[in-house]
Specification:
The chain has 7 helices and 5 strands. It is of the alpha/beta class. The protein has a single domain, classed as Rossmann fold. A 5-stranded parallel β-sheet has the order 2-3-1-4-5, sandwiched between helices. Bound molecules: adenosine-5'-diphosphate.
């Protein structure tokens, strides 16, 4: 059963390998179970469809986020909960998203770059070290830590379940989603 709830955009930001996608995927069944209308917008998935034509220049990265923001805006204003997982390393970009969408909630998915490199889920850090790619935020480009995230998870100190539960609990406490029904 779908329950009554407002639209919002949970915007997960963090380094490659910090855990954005993993946490969003872990949250999905929990929220669906509670009757929340939900869509996931993921950086890697979007780049295979909506923004397949774009590369990784500064301009293309900005355009990528602009298109995604547009979709997040349409969904959130129609009472859908959006889980958006994009590195979005710059405060200015994140502020643009905040201004555009309905009910922006920032989740800082935090882990030291050394830990992310050790995980190297997509092999991107190895490619950087081999000189095959450049412009990797956290290494030769900065990652600007969110100054006032709504939610801060530290994935080098928490399990996936703990991080996901932290976000869910925050959403409940701030009444974006109803608490689970206990019988
Ligand atoms: P991102 O989407 O930020 O690039 P991924 O979610 O693809 O990162 O990869 C994160 C990796 O870190 C996964 O292998 C995941 O199992 C691991 N991990 C360890 N602890 C956590 C945690 N608390 N939250 C999320 N991921 C974690």
């Amino acid at each position: 059963m779908i329950v009554d709830h407002p639209g919002f955009v949970l915007w997960f930001t963090g380094l490659s390998g910090a855990g954005k996608t993993t946490i969003a995927k872990a949250m999905l069944p929990i929220l669906q179970e509670r009757g929340i209308r939900i869509e996931r917008l993921d950086g890697d998935v979007v780049r295979e469809s909506l923004t397949k034509d774009l590369g990784f220049t500064k301009k293309d990265r900005d355009t990528n986020i602009e298109r995604v923001t547009f979709v997040a805006k349409l969904l959130s204003r129609n009472n859908v909960a959006v889980l958006a997982t994009f590195m979005s390393p710059y405060e200015g970009t994140r502020n643009m998203v905040r201004d555009e969408v309905t009910n922006y909630i920032e989740v800082f998915v935090d882990a030291p770059v050394e830990v992310c490199e050790e995980r190297d889920v997509k092999g991107i850090y190895a490619k950087f070290r081999a000189g095959e790619v450049k412009n990797l935020n956290g290494l030769d480009l900065p990652y600007e830590d969110p100054q006032q995230p709504d939610i801060h998870v530290e994935t080098h100190k928490e399990t996936v379940e703990e991080s996901a539960a932290k976000v869910i609990q925050w959403l409940e406490e701030h009444q974006w989603i109803p608490a689970p029904v206990t019988s």
